[in-house]
Amino acid sequence: MIRTLTLSLISALLLSAGAPAAARGNRDQDNLREAAAQGQVIPLNKLIADVRSRPPYNDMTYLGGPQFDAGRMIYALKFMDGNQVVVVYVDARTGRIVGRKP
Fold it and tell me: What single string gives the DSSP state of each residue in the chain?
């Protein structure tokens, strides 16, 4: 009984700790959608299509699951090049590639 209560309490604490991060993620997404609607950023599907059309990314497989850094307005797009994952950093405002790993 005590073990069940302890596990329940730990689960509740873990879930509540994740709530602010989830709320922040939703707020970032809302802000991003609004910025795209106002023409301040390029829509994600257009950015992905643009990067996928450029060499050498046109020969790579896009893996999906883009990540967005709202503070810097940068998308991280993942591609597979053979057996290596390549992360391409793209400015959401201009569509310019601003970095790459590796």
Answer: -HHHHHHHHHHHHHHHHHHHHHHHHHHHHHHHHHHHHTTSS--HHHHHHHHHTSTTGGGSEE----EEETTTTEEEEEEEETTEEEEEEEETTT--EEEEE-
